[in-house]
Write a structure and sequence with these properties.
It is built from 2 helices and 5 strands, in the order αβββαββ. By secondary structure, it is of the alpha+beta class. It has a single domain, classed as 2-Layer Sandwich (HIT family, subunit A), CATH 3.30.428. The protein has a 5-stranded antiparallel sheet with strand order 1-2-3-5-4, with helices on one face. The longest helix has 18 residues. The chain is globular, with a radius of gyration of 14 Å. Bound molecules: guanosine-5'-monophosphate (5GP) and zinc ion (ZN). Zinc ion binds next to helix 1.
Length: about 120
């Protein structure tokens, strides 16, 4: 746990969040400022700064994170209608919280390219 990390503090329960899925490796909770009718963040419990900080040993964890996104999409009822997974990385990528998180967005038509 990184005491200065917002999402580590959410994992620890020091900051409240609306948890909708969790297991030993990952956790999913609702984004506080939703950009779509459904906006869920999936994170590894362990502190990893971003995709740019991933190591070969994180391969299974990241596969599990993606499969968890699918499980949440099914649980929340938008697996069939579709959704978008986003991993903002670094300054140009628009990352504002330095703990790797997958945005799971659904409930409206998404557009491409993103802004
Ligand atoms: P980023 O911009 O780093 O890709 O995404 C960070 C996301 O975290 C944003 O969508 C923002 O709304 C969300 N966020 C920031 N602070 C909090 C918080 O305290 N609780 C929750 N649930 N989401 C947060
Ligand atoms: Zn963290």
């Amino acid at each position: 746990m990184n005491k200065d990390c917002l999402f580590c503090r959410i994992v620890a329960g020091e900051i409240p969040s609306t948890r909708i899925y969790e297991d030993a490796q990952v956790m999913a909770f609702r984004d506080i400022n939703p950009a779509a009718p459904q906006h869920i963040l999936l994170i590894p419990r362990r502190h990893i700064h971003s995709v740019a900080a991933l190591e070969p040993g994180d391969a299974v964890l990241m596969g599990h994170l993606l499969l968890s996104a699918r499980a949440v999409a099914e649980q929340e009822g938008f697996a069939e209608t579709g959704f978008r997974c986003v991993l903002n990385t670094g300054e140009d990528g628009g990352q504002t919280v330095g703990h790797l998180h997958l945005h799971l967005l659904a409930g409206r038509q998404m557009h491409w390219p993103p802004g």
